Amino acid sequence: MTAKSSLLKVILLGDGGVGKSSLMNRYVTNKFDSHLFHTIGVEFLNKDLEVEGRPVTMQIWDTAGQERFRSLRTPFYRGSDCCLLTFSVDDSQSFVNLANWKKEFVYYADVKDPDGFPFVVLGNKLDVAERQVTAEEARRWCRENGDHPYYETSAKDATNVAAAFEEAARRVLAVDERAEHLMATDTVNLHRKSRSGATCC
Ligand SMILES: Nc1nc2c(ncn2[C@@H]2O[C@H](COP(=O)(O)OP(=O)(O)OP(=O)(O)O)[C@@H](O)[C@H]2O)c(=O)[nH]1
Ligand SMILES: [Mg+2]
């Protein structure tokens, strides 16, 4: 009997033009289009994969990064299992804005435990020569803002794209496993005889 596939909702956030749609398209269809239009609102695509032997259906939500579409995208944050905070290594403002994106997500997704929530940070457009953000700067931000995994990607030549999305899935499954473990150890077994034989009442 094949194991049931877990459905994971993964959302891409980040400034307009950093490459969110391109990353989703590269990962799901393995295509790259250098003349993509700005996303309006949100779109999603599904991708089936296996993570550590477990079947997973990843529902990837791509959002409009432009400020004017904030009210169109924020209602879709709720219920996300992982958030991919995306910037472009050739655009320092998109890197500076990561903190705002994280704050916006935590607020509208109503995340109860931001420190325990799986974020993955993507520095896209690695193929572009003129960088404005160094890998060290980006890694330091990730370390200091929640110890998030960091991937430098290129939707154009596919560098690290699958690796970044697979890490997102691993992080979600790890959170689920931790929660299941806590549930299992927290539940009191009312039928088990107490070891010492002592009775409480
Ligand atoms: N060189 C290079 N260009 C890229 C890469 N990823 C995206 N682009 C280009 O950057 C532009 C913006 O990419 P999009 O994927 O539309 O960006 P977005 O984050 O979805 O933008 P919004 O929909 O406005 O939020 C497009 O012209 C892409 O072809 C990349 O890895 N390398
Ligand atoms: Mg887009």
Automatic annotation (TrEMBL):
Reactions that this protein is recorded to catalyse: GTP + H2O = GDP + phosphate + H(+)
Entry's localization field: Cell membrane; Cytoplasmic vesicle, Phagosome membrane
Alphabetical GO biological process terms: protein transport; retrograde transport, endosome to Golgi
The protein's required cofactors: Mg(2+)
PROSITE patterns, per the entry: RAB (PS51419), RAS (PS51421), RHO (PS51420)
GO cellular component assignments: cytosol; late endosome; lysosome; phagocytic vesicle membrane; plasma membrane
Superkingdom in the source lineage: Eukaryota
InterPro entries on file: P-loop_NTPase, Small_GTP-bd, Small_GTPase
Membrane topology type: Lipid-anchor
GO molecular function annotation: G protein activity; GTP binding
Keyword Secreted among UniProt keywords: no
Alphabetical UniProt keywords: Cell membrane, Cytoplasmic vesicle, GTP-binding, Hydrolase, Lipoprotein, Membrane, Nucleotide-binding, Phosphoprotein, Prenylation, Protein transport, Transport
Enzyme Commission designation: 3.6.5.2
NCBIfam families, per database record: small_GTP
Family in the record: Belongs to the small GTPase superfamily. Rab family.
Protein name according to UniProt: small monomeric GTPase
Organism from which the protein derives: Synaphobranchus kaupii (Kaup's arrowtooth eel)
